UniProtKB/TrEMBL annotation:
UniProt keyword list: Cell membrane, Membrane, Transmembrane, Transmembrane helix
Keyword Secreted: no
Family of the protein in this entry: Belongs to the DedA family.
Matching InterPro entries: DedA-like, VTT_dom
Domain of life: Bacteria
Entry keyword annotation includes Transmembrane helix: yes
Domain VTT: start-end pairs: 32-167
Compartment(s) of residence: Cell membrane
Protein name: VTT domain-containing protein
Transmembrane segments: 12-28, 35-56, 62-84, 147-169, 175-198
Species assigned in the record: Streptomyces musisoli
Short name of one Pfam family: VTT_dom
Length: 204
């Protein structure tokens, strides 16, 4: 079954599906974009022969998948940031009513003011963290040059990690649903760790 999926992964449609899913999940965090990226990485490994132990010769496909997911992530962040920037008093009141959003906005502001954006990178892995950070940065009118470079690093880190999980999971465990399941569990594990770190200690 994964051999047929792997052959389809070579087509351009997979990049469009990944891009749309990753771009939109900043607004709909329930979208399984991470699972989709991992599955695409696993399918790409199956199609290239990586899962059978042969040295893959179509690495640019994997790089294209990483670039596609990272670019869509940054574009989604930028759209959310811009919408929140122009959100006006209604969005400000919504943030003020939420203790979580207020705290996130304050911590993000402090981190960016100190020239550190580790919080932005961590938030990309945490459940719904990307949405909170992007909207809070825009609502607080943080400068784009302080936020977007860290968003780019976060998107690239998340995309590379997710694709690598699928790709190397297929190498180690074979192109099976077990490999995909283990890779997805590793992605969720990273998200749990990122969420814990964000709650428990200040990020500089």
């Amino acid at each position: 079954m994964f051999e047929s999926v792997g052959s389809l992964a070579a087509g351009p449609w997979i990049y469009a599906v990944v891009a749309v899913s990753v771009l939109l999940d900043v607004f709909l965090p329930v979208l399984p974009s991470g699972v989709l990226v991992i599955t695409a990485g696993t399918a790409a490994a199956a199609g290239s022969g990586a899962a059978t132990g042969r040295v893959p010769h179509e690495v640019p496909d994997i790089l294209a998948l990483i670039l596609c997911a990272a670019t869509a992530s940054v574009l989604g962040d930028a759209v959310a940031y811009r919408l929140a920037w122009r959100g006006g008093e209604r969005l400000d009141r919504a943030i003020a009513r939420s203790r979580r959003l207020t705290t996130a906005q304050e911590r993000l502001g402090d981190a960016l003011a100190r020239g550190g954006g580790a919080l932005v990178v961590l938030a990309r892995f945490a459940p719904a963290g990307r949405s909170v950070v992007s909207f809070c940065a825009g609502a607080a009118h943080r400068r784009a040059r302080d936020f977007l470079p860290w968003s780019a690093l976060a998107g690239l880190s998340w995309a590379a990690y997710s694709v690598a999980l699928g790709y190397y999971g297929a190498q180690w465990l074979g192109a099976t649903w077990l490999a995909t399941g283990v890779s997805v569990a590793a992605l969720f594990g990273a998200g749990a760790v990122a969420g814990f770190v964000m709650r428990r200690r200040p990020v500089s």
